Amino acid sequence: MSHPVHPVIAIDGTAASGKSTFSRRLSQKLGYAYVNTGAMYRGVTWYLQQRNVPLGEPEAVTRGLAGATLETRLENGELAFRISGVDPLPHVREGKVNDEVSLVARVAAVRKLLVAEQQRLAQLAPLVMEGRDIGTVVFPQTPYKFFLDADAVVRAQRRQNQGETDAILQRDVLDQQRENSPLTCASDALRLDSSLSTVDELIALALRHLASLGLKSQSHFS
Ligand code: DC
Question: How far apart, in whole angstroms, are the C-alpha atoms of residue 53 and residue 21?
Fold first, then answer.
């Protein structure tokens, strides 16, 4: 695997742990692009659902994906994504996608394709990238890693406030127990608990940690 040309901040963690708010805010503070890899797995899930692919069958998922073309790029410092010419991002928070995304994310062919895209994006610009395997599999060599978690009650409440139905604990179990790239905290990641601190406090902590590792903020997108 080629090393990224630019710095990558890897942010992994459990479902509804506040990764997206934290990651987006950190990317703004640093002037880096922001890439939510969960949206890519969700986009593929939505695409396959549109084609009535039985997502419980890994072979069917692999076959369904083989016929698709994937385009990813950075637009105004964020991920832009098309599958066979269609932008799935307006649909990726639907309850049906929440229900089945972990089935799709466990399939090796899906992960291989999306990880390659994620690694390519890091050749284009400095990135804050959030997901489940960014610090362990996609960019194990980056020194800049965080792992976010929060109390299960706080996480469930967060999803409810967002008006979403999402069986987050069930998704966590599937994500943690799958064979391919399971969700786990990299040994060199800084663990953060978002049920104990505000986003501002977490960002201040993260910036101090990054500075201690020698990372200086730069503005690429302001
Ligand atoms: O971050 P999220 O909740 O939007 O992610 C949706 C699902 O996608 C998550 O349950 C597991 C999968 N995912 C993954 O397997 N690897 C990633 N890097 C990001 C997400």
Answer: 32
Confidence of residue 67 (pLDDT cuts 50, 70, 90): confident
Contacts 24+ apart (CB under 8 A), 51-55: 55/100, 55/103, 55/104
Instruction: Output the residue whose Cα is nearest ligand 1's atom 1.
Output: 38
pTM: 0.94
- Is any ligand 1 atom within 6 A of the Cβ of residue 22? no
* Count of structural domains, the chain: 1
pLDDT band at 222 (very low <50, low <70, confident <90, very high): very low
- Is 187 part of a structural domain of the chain? yes
CATH number for 18: 3.40.50.300
Whether ligand 1 lies within 6 angstroms of the CB of 132 is answered as: yes
